[in-house]
């Protein structure tokens, strides 16, 4: 299975708001192939040559619902400041703890399923713990995440509940500040 931009559904498609269902573990072959394809999309989307050849938009994460499949499957690949890459391919991810402190991307968020620009700060938790099955490690894991990685995980996990990033932007004051928040 190969995912390209043609497979991605947009926020104009009502399916993007559908709640995703848990998947059975161990993963069946179809779910495993889908999760592998999601991971491959994200890994390849930041390589300019591959992205152009395979018609991929740059991304740090993708959820199965974005290709029209309402299953709790996400892939996230985020480089850190040291040049290392944090990557997960999760089935049934669940946030089990979160910091009180907020964090946000200074320039706002974007999404493969959202073509229209939605400006504003998207407040998320600065630190989270996520539990789920990671296909890369072939094991149940608990992930402690912070910074950009935590934001990307929360963005993708939101998709599983039919929530889009712009739902979290204050309509009356899109660029409002939080002095205690971590700005990324």
TrEMBL record:
<protein>
    <recommendedName>
        <fullName>Peptide deformylase</fullName>
        <ecNumber>3.5.1.88</ecNumber>
    </recommendedName>
</protein>
<dbReference type="GO" id="GO:0042586">
    <property type="term" value="F:peptide deformylase activity"/>
</dbReference>
<feature type="binding site">
    <location>
        <position position="159"/>
    </location>
    <ligand>
        <name>Fe cation</name>
    </ligand>
</feature>
<feature type="active site">
    <location>
        <position position="156"/>
    </location>
</feature>
<keyword id="KW-0408">Iron</keyword>
<dbReference type="GO" id="GO:0046872">
    <property type="term" value="F:metal ion binding"/>
</dbReference>
<keyword id="KW-0479">Metal-binding</keyword>
<keyword id="KW-0648">Protein biosynthesis</keyword>
<dbReference type="GO" id="GO:0006412">
    <property type="term" value="P:translation"/>
</dbReference>
<comment type="similarity">
    <text>Belongs to the polypeptide deformylase family.</text>
</comment>
<keyword id="KW-0378">Hydrolase</keyword>
<feature type="binding site">
    <location>
        <position position="155"/>
    </location>
    <ligand>
        <name>Fe cation</name>
    </ligand>
</feature>
<dbReference type="Pfam" id="PF01327">
    <property type="entry name" value="Pep_deformylase"/>
</dbReference>
<dbReference type="InterPro" id="IPR036821">
    <property type="entry name" value="Peptide_deformylase_sf"/>
</dbReference>
<dbReference type="InterPro" id="IPR023635">
    <property type="entry name" value="Peptide_deformylase"/>
</dbReference>
<comment type="function">
    <text>Removes the formyl group from the N-terminal Met of newly synthesized proteins. Requires at least a dipeptide for an efficient rate of reaction. N-terminal L-methionine is a prerequisite for activity but the enzyme has broad specificity at other positions.</text>
</comment>
<feature type="binding site">
    <location>
        <position position="111"/>
    </location>
    <ligand>
        <name>Fe cation</name>
    </ligand>
</feature>
